[in-house]
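Reviewers of the previous submission asked for a worked example of the structure-prediction workflow described in the proposal, so we include one complete record here. The input consisted solely of the amino acid sequence. No template or homolog information was supplied to the procedure at any stage.
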Amino acid sequence: MLASFTAFLLLIIVSQDTVLQKSIQAVTSILFSSILPVAFIYTQRHWLNTDERTERFLPLVVGIVSYGTGFLALRLMDASVIIQALMFCYATNTLLVLGITQLWKVSVHSTAISGPLVALSYRFGIVVAPFYLLILLVGISRVVLRKHTIAQVIVGILIGIIGTGTQMYYIFQLPFPF
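From that input alone, the workflow returned the following structure tokens.
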């Protein structure tokens, strides 16, 4: 959730909106991409074990609903297209993860770090490239902690990178960053 928080803040800070608009967009983005999904998991931690593939359904659905609502709110407030696009990508990428999770466990952490980096690349270009090492660090940590296999991490990364990049380019018609 730190990746979404940071990505949205950076994208909002450099937007052309007024300080008031930026403030409202920041609260909206952080509320729907970070606070609400984390609050749900935190309040349900006594019975929820997201390490188990079968127990990921409800948290993923809550995330999809939260991200989708956040996208609609950002759309209504006419936020910058890239900010809307990132929230949309959170919803759709999580929907894809949910679908795959019905059969196989995917690394949500890998998806969650790679998607925002793609969005930041669309806005800031090649300067973001060194931060892609974070994907490697997250992926290695998930394997070392025995939370995922290498294949599960790779699929998570591919969902984040290809899913976000494809949607930003084709749905939101943002120019390719490099």
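The two ends are 26 Å apart (CA to CA). We consider this example representative of the routine output the project will generate in years two and three.
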